[in-house]
Amino acid sequence: MFSFLNNHNGNEQKTYLICGLGNPGSSYENTRHNVGFKAIDLFAEKFSLKFKKKWRAEYAECEDEGNKYIFIKPMTYMNNSGEAIKKFAKKNSVKAEEIIVIYDEMSLKVGRLRLRLGGSAGGHNGVKSILQYFGGADFYRVRIGVDHPGKGADIADYVLSDFTLSEMALISPAVSASVDAVLMLCTKGCDAAMNTFNGTVPNDSGQPNQETKK
């Protein structure tokens, strides 16, 4: 059991479920649809964690600044992401508002970030699955822009294709910034995180360039 510590805001320790969406397997590793997995991998690197397997997911846990974090990558494939997330939430008594989901967003330019609480699936099948398993309850979303392929393009082919080299130059710092955004959300609140990261294009170090905000 973990001890109850005081977090940044002086409250009892909270448990946050940080979920990155993607598809399992090396063939999907560098696709647009897997930026959520890349963020979770970066959390594991940051906190020197090793993944374990349970409930059709890879997961790792740690405590930091008075909070407990459970990082998960559902291994159910994108369209059934909600199954594993629901299981972890139930077994750890995590409320919907303590769940943060990181995923790709076609309505944002490549590398831009957007945080919010609640909303629709926006055509994203992974988010749609989570909403179905949680009965439409609100959870936090951290969306990483991958841009839209344009009218008439095959969406499935697009999100399941690899980033170009020029896109990777924007995506890598964006994934790094998404990690910072999640930690700020958990320690300083959603407003602080949104004001800092929403609409930004992070620089090479993953820090938000405020002048690039829309």
Task: Give descriptors for this structure.
alpha/beta, 7-stranded mixed β-sheet, Rossmann fold, 6 helices, 214 residues, globular
Please, could you describe this protein's structure?
The protein is an alpha/beta fold. The chain has one domain (15-212): Peptidyl-tRNA hydrolase (Rossmann fold, 3-Layer(aba) Sandwich), CATH 3.40.50.1470. It is 32% helix and 20% strand. It is built from six helices and seven strands, in the order E-H-E-E-E-H-E-E-H-E-H-H-H. It has helices at 35-46, 81-91, 125-133, 155-159, 165-188, 190-197, and strands at 15-20, 52-54, 57-64, 67-74, 99-105, 113-117, 140-145. A seven-stranded mixed beta sheet has the order 2-3-4-1-5-7-6, sandwiched between helices. Strand 3 and strand 4 form a beta hairpin. Helix 1 packs across helix 5, helix 2 (81-91) packs parallel to helix 3 and helix 5 packs antiparallel against helix 6. The chain is globular and about 50 Å long. The model is unreliable at 1-8 (pLDDT under 50). Its EC number is 3.1.1.29. The record marks 23 as: Discriminates between blocked and unblocked aminoacyl-tRNA. This is Peptidyl-tRNA hydrolase. Pfam families: Pept_tRNA_hydro. Keywords: Cytoplasm, Hydrolase, RNA-binding, tRNA-binding.
